[in-house]
Structure formats: structure tokens, C-alpha cells
Amino acid sequence: MEPKLVDTVAPPRNFTLSLEDRLRAYAQGAPSYIRRRRRIEDLEARLIERIAAAAAPAEAASSGELAAELAQLNELIGRHNRYYPIEANLPIDVRSGRLLERGAPWRPLPFVTTADLLDRAQSAARNGSLRSSSDSKTDSGTSVA
To answer: Considering the domain boundaries, does residue 6 fall inside one?
Structure first.
């Protein structure tokens, strides 16, 4: 007699994680590429806010302090572009040899220039889309830096 398949509410899966693997993932937290991407986005937003809030945006954009933070931002972007395909285990299209991200060719993040920041700060100031200090808080109420 042939074994009978049991109907379940669990959807069919092509893999499962053991309890040990789930606990290890929980203990390690978010993958490094996600944490790094968040740092990039937060630093970029902070720079744009600083330029937009300045009395003279062009002078603020050319300050030495901003240049140092811009160098840090571009270093983070370079590190992200270097390691993201490996950490996220991006597949390779066998026909073209290109990395794929969600089915489309992966494109590295572009490096940010002072002119880019100045343009984005001016458009954010025009549109009134700057984050307020309450928007830069996480759900737990702690500041995101």
C-alpha cells in the first residue's frame, strides 16, 4: 500500500531551517550588508540635512568637516559594493555572467560627490522633505546615528 500524503496548512518549501540554525541567525542579528546599507543611508541623510539647514549651503558643502564625512560615506559605499554580492549570495546570470539582484542585473551604489549632496539638499529644502528630529528616532525612542 502506498503512503498517503497529509494535507497541511504549511506551504511547500524547498528548504527548512533547524532550530539551531534559527537561533544562530537570531543571535547574530541583521546581516552586515543590511547594517552597512543603513549606515550609508543615515550618514547621507545627515549630510543632506546639514547642508540644507545651513545659511549658506554652498559654503557648508565645501567645509572640511563635511569633506571628511563624505570620504567616510564613500568608503562605506566602496566596502558595500565590494562585499555585498558575496554577503547577499547574489546569483550569477550564466548567459551574461552578471550578478543578479531580485532577477535584475545588480548595479553597485554610485559614489556620492559634494555636488550630488548640494543638489539633493536644495531639492529637499524646496520640497520641505527634510526629516525632523522626531523622524530620526527609531521605534524604541533611541536616536539613530
So the answer is: no
Question: If you count DSSP H runs as helices and E runs as strands, how many of each does the chain have, helices first?
Answer: 5, 2
Q: Is residue 10 part of a domain?
A: no
What total of structural domains would you count in the chain? 1
For 137, the grid coordinates are 528616532
For the stretch 63-71, contacts whose Cβ atoms lie closer than 8 Å and that sit 24 or more positions apart, written own/partner, are 66/114, 66/117, 67/114, 69/43, 70/112, 70/113, 70/114, 70/117
User: Which residues fall within 8 angstroms of residue 117, CB to CB, at 6 or more apart?
Assistant: 44, 47, 48, 51, 61, 66, 70
Per-residue model confidence (pLDDT) at position 40: 97
For 15-51, how does the pLDDT look when each residue is reduced to its tens digit (9 = 90+)?
A: 677 888 888 878 888 889 999 999 999 999 999 999 8
Residue 105 parent element (H or E)? strand 104-105
For 100, the enclosing helix (H) or strand (E) is: strand 100-101
Q: Is residue 115 part of a domain?
A: yes
Residue in the block written with cell 567616510: 72
Residue 140 lies in a domain: no
Among residues 131, 140, 123, 138, the alpha carbon closest in space to that of 45 is found at 131
What is the rounded distance in angstroms from the CA atom of residue 90 to the CA atom of residue 107?
Answer: 12
Expressed as residue numbers, the domain containing 67 is 30-127
